[in-house]
Write a structure and sequence with these properties.
The protein is of the alpha+beta class. It contains two helices and six strands.
Length: about 160
């Protein structure tokens, strides 16, 4: 018997599945609880190169949407970390832009992709921005971007 997944697990899995549809993003995306080495390297096998980027998807339950029983607010952060071996000065921005386009935070139904994340166990009603957590860091030789969104959703069955 499979364990019951929580709404945050379903949202995280739906986002990872969507990002993996893009051939470039699929090379780097991982869930926050990925069991292997996120950088792709293996200390016991030096022939395996590290990935140039690591994209980590994390989701956190923020409670129930005001006045709507069963509809949850799930905060999602996507961290993109650049490996120092990467020589492309625009690579990090390109990946951030691709992810931003796949997760448009808008209230306009014709410009939203929220339905792409719905499935037989999850219904997504909308994607909203979280501006206080979006960051850009270029210090200590580490380059990183964080993209943050809030999903309004409900777990089905």
């Amino acid at each position: 018997m499979t364990p019951e997944l929580e709404v945050v697990d379903l949202v995280e899995a739906a986002i990872i599945a969507d990002l993996q549809l893009d051939s470039l993003l699929a090379l780097y995306v991982r869930g926050h609880d990925f069991a292997g080495m996120k950088g792709g390297d293996d200390p016991s096998d030096p022939t395996i190169d590290e990935r140039l980027y690591t994209i980590t998807v994390s989701a956190e339950d923020r409670g129930t949407f005001n006045g709507y029983a069963g509809i949850s607010i799930v905060a999602v952060t996507i961290e993109i970390q650049r490996n120092l071996a990467d020589q492309d000065p625009n690579g990090l921005s390109k990946l951030a832009s691709l992810i931003d386009c796949r997760l448009p935070a808008t209230q306009l139904a014709d410009q939203s992709r929220h339905q792409a994340f719905s499935n037989n166990r999850l219904k997504v009603f909308g994607i909203m921005p979280i501006t206080e957590t979006e960051t850009r860091s270029d210090q200590d030789l580490t380059r990183e971007r964080t993209i943050a969104r809030q999903f309004l959703c409900a777990q089905i069955a």
